[in-house]
Amino acid sequence: MVAKTIKETVSEGIKKLKKREFNNPFLEAYMILEYLLNKEKLFLITHENEEIEEETYNRYLRLIEKRNTGYPIQYIVHNQEFMGINFYLDEDVLIPRPDTEVLVENAIKIAKSDYFPHKNIKALDIGTGSGAIAVSFGYYCRDAEVVGVDINPKAVEVARKNVNENNLDNVNIIKGDLFMEKFDFPNEKYDIIMSNPPYIKSEDIKKLQLEVSQYEPKNALDGGASGLKFHSQILKIIPNYLNDKSVLIMEIGWDQSEEVVNIMRKIKGFKKVEVKKDITKKDRIVIGYYNRLEV
């Protein structure tokens, strides 16, 4: 085979990726070669006439074809930016989305507000997955002690990798099932509890975009028949893990706020419940302010 330059390789990738509707051919063609060569886009552009090895070129074409099947680009390049942080990903974890940033942003805002007189916040992320929420919160709140818990051992490995790659000694990722009757883990009471539980109705998963329905982990998407199976479970046990004065923040589907708010308001101790919208102006998180002492 005649050696191919970086420019020729990217051009071939763009040409092939244009055959699919749901992608960004120019961006993704570069992303895949950046990943293979471990170089930034600027390097590829300024060295476009450099030749690449045949093995690399062939591997590039295989990954381009894999992307054309609908396989998520984030799993191909093992990366997704979230809250300004790069996260390692594989198909064992859900891909973090911009919608979820509103959850972390509000958690950080509350942690740094006068709501808590102390700054050594203890925080818990239920169903941590890639660790996007726990790691981001711990990254921007260095005085906080953060625990991320997940039932999936493979997800725990990914989250721990993201903790280590960001050199965070204030974030601890553990495997466990919060819904078991006996579940022991550090800091049994928390100031802030965060969660992005599965909230897609079981029957709606097949209607999602191919990248999601076919390739992302079902157990991170499926919220049961109502979509609120895990929200209900969390709300049932949550008083056991909340400090006397604390906050619970949960992500929801755009049409689930009313039901979640109603459930939360029936729980003794929640003095204030509010809904926040995401960047598309859709209801995205419910925040419950809990005070055991004012019951």
The structure class reads: alpha/beta
Give the number of domains: 2
Order of helices and strands: EHHHEHHEEHEHEHEEHHEHEE
Cα distance spanning the termini = 76 Å
The total beta strand count reads 11
**For the residues shown, what is the average pLDDT?**
92
Helix content: 25-40%
CATH architecture of the largest domain: 3-Layer(aba) Sandwich
C-alpha Rg (nearest Å) = 21 Å
What is the CATH superfamily classification of the largest domain? Vaccinia Virus protein VP39
User: CATH top level of the largest domain?
Assistant: Alpha Beta
For this entry, what is the oligomeric state of its chains? single chain
| Cα shape | elongated
How many helical elements?
Answer: 11
Strand percentage, roughly? 15-25%
Describe this structure in words.
The chain is of the alpha/beta class. The chain has 2 domains: 4-69, Ubiquitin-associated (UBA) domain (Helicase, Ruva Protein, domain 3); 91-294, Rossmann fold (3-Layer(aba) Sandwich). The protein is 37% helix and 20% strand. It has 11 helices and 11 strands. The protein has helices at 6-17, 25-37, 41-46, 54-68, 73-77, 101-111, 132-140, 153-165, 210-215, 229-237, 257-265, and strands at residues 4-5, 51-52, 80-82, 85-87, 122-126, 145-150, 171-175, 190-195, 242-251, 270-277, 283-291. It has a 7-stranded mixed sheet with strand order 7-6-5-8-9-11-10, with helices on both faces. The chain has a two-stranded antiparallel sheet with strand order 1-2. Strands 3-4 form a two-stranded antiparallel ribbon. Strand 6 (145-150), helix 8 (153-165) and strand 7 (171-175) form a beta-alpha-beta unit. Helix 2 crosses helix 4 (54-68). The mean pLDDT is 92.
